[in-house]
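Anyone up for a design puzzle?
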């Protein structure tokens, strides 16, 4: 992987240089910081302190990009967007240090000037020095208050405008979160602020391979802090460290998977079917394979079969459980196949979920985890909030509807479909489901809040708790500690 190379003749510390390299790669070629940064860190001999500082600078500057550009625009004679990109990225790193770290202002300015000299040459040094000195003065005058610094609208008069400034999000995303939370300004503020927190690593202990308690103990044996998840019986949260150091992860008995992804998968596996089962479960959009692997593991140990099937008429023995996982892209299909290794009753097939290679009405359950905007995982992808646009969502909605229709056609009468997205955006969540349900006469929307694992603690004791107004489930980082996963459960009926 290539990044912009620093020029000779300048000096800067390695943590700031590495952060600048990641920002340049994100800007130049659309790199994903959460993939590139660990790769670069693994190849550099940095102290633990420098590794931590490089991580904070990189992710913090990317998350706050809009705010940083706004601050820089207040002190430059030309829009920051017109500044030479390598210089602009260095200025963003400097402004972030001044605004959000404990680095003394003089050190933040001097180190950024050194970075500009090392990476961009001598010509822009005076410009960078002048700009950052002005930024430092403005931050001091505003006592570090972003609302004052950027003249944020009054929260009572323009809640979305105020939150966009103080939480460093594009206004359209603020509007989406406010809409999804029913206009709850305090809740939206908490949800947006959660996008700036570092997410804990969640693991799934695959049923039949290792249980959550054993996985916690294994983490402790290699010096990693870990604890059981709150909602999924298979979830383990790591306090830090490399999950790859766990033998269970190396052996495929456990893997990294957000607890929200586990919960929506368990909901589909737990919802009862009605009538005679075929034994077939289909994952229409399986890449990269985490949910498919959990479904396969549950099938292999027969969980939660006792609660997820109505008694068969005439005492028929249920057929063997099988899983078909579809993924259209070759690389991701390969990941799905790897995740299903060791599950002989699970098959990965490269196919478009809109045109599944299965006759209609043959599946007991269908998981359709549709491609979406990813607004529910912004804390994991720091640059995404500035990349996504409303047009991206509009372009995805037709595909999401087509996939849901395909899932409903594939499931048998009495079977269940789980429609899942990693987004809280109503246009790609509840509006997709209600629109398709209204077009068909063979669909009932179930109250997902009343299905395991959501029907009991920690979400509610026999009643919906903290999951929204229903019938859907919307998880949130600030409420549940998970990605903002959306779940709708639908039952197919005879027309």
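Challenge accepted. My sequence:
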């Amino acid at each position: 992987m290539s990044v912009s190379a620093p020029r000779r003749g300048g000096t800067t510390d390695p943590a700031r240089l590495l952060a600048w390299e990641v920002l340049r790669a994100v800007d130049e070629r659309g790199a994903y910081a959460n993939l590139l940064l660990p790769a670069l860190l693994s190849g550099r001999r940095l102290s633990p302190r420098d590794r931590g500082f490089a991580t904070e600078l990189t992710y913090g500057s990317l998350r706050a990009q809009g705010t940083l550009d706004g601050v820089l625009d207040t002190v430059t004679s030309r829009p920051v967007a017109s500044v030479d990109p390598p210089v602009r990225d260095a200025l963003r790193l400097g402004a972030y240090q001044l605004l959000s770290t404990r680095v003394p202002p003089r050190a933040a300015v001097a180190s950024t000037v050194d970075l500009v000299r090392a990476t961009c040459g001598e010509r822009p040094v005076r410009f960078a020095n002048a700009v950052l000195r002005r930024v430092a003065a403005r931050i001091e005058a505003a006592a570090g208050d972003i609302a004052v610094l950027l003249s944020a609208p009054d929260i009572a008069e323009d809640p979305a405008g105020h939150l966009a400034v103080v939480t460093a999000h594009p206004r359209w995303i603020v509007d989406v979160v406010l809409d999804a939370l029913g206009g709850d300004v305090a809740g939206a503020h908490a949800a947006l602020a959660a996008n700036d927190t570092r997410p804990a690593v969640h693991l799934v202990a695959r049923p039949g391979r290792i249980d959550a308690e054993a996985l916690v103990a294994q983490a402790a044996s290699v010096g990693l802090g870990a604890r059981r998840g709150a909602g999924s019986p298979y979830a383990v949260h790591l306090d830090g460290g490399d999950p790859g150091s766990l033998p269970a992860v190396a052996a495929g008995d456990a893997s990294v998977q957000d607890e929200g992804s586990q919960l929506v998968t368990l909901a589909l596996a737990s919802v009862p079917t009605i009538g005679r089962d075929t034994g077939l479960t289909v994952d229409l959009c399986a890449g990269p394979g985490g949910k498919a692997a959990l479904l396969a593991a549950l099938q292999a140990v027969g969980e939660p079969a006792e609660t997820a099937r109505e008694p068969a008429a005439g005492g028929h023995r249920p057929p063997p459980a099988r899983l078909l996982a579809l993924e259209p892209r070759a690389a991701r299909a390969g990941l799905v196949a790897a995740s299903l290794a060791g599950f002989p009753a699970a098959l990965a097939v490269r196919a478009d979920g809109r045109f599944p290679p299965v006759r209609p009405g043959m599946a007991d359950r269908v998981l359709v985890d549709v491609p979406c905007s990813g607004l529910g995982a912004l804390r994991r992808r720091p640059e995404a909030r500035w990349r996504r646009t409303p047009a991206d969502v509009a372009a995805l909605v037709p595909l999401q509807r087509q996939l849901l229709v395909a899932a409903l056609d594939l499931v048998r009468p009495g079977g269940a479909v789980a429609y899942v997205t990693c987004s809280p955006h109503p246009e790609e969540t509840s509006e997709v489901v209600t629109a398709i349900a209204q077009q068909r006469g063979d669909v009932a929307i179930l109250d997902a809040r009343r299905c395991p694992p959501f029907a009991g603690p920690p979400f509610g004791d026999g009643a919906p708790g903290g999951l929204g107004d229903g019938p859907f489930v919307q998880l949130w980082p600030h409420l549940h500690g998970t990605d903002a996963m959306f779940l709708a459960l639908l039952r197919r009926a005879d027309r």
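A detail worth pointing out: Residues 273 and 375 are 32 Å apart (CA to CA).
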